[in-house]
Amino acid sequence: MEDNENKGTFFLVELWETKEHHNRHNGQDHLLDFRRDASKILSENAQVYKGFKIY
Asked: Quick one: how far is CA 53 from the chain centroid?
């Protein structure tokens, strides 16, 4: 999603069954490649917010 008030600011929302699923995903080659490649075009480091489902 792109922020309505800050053009060029994007949000990714992911829901994971467990922390283990999320940790396994973070170590996958395709995600590591994405992080490496995306860092070349980002103006700053990504901010990561972790929460939990409340409903």
From this structure: 17
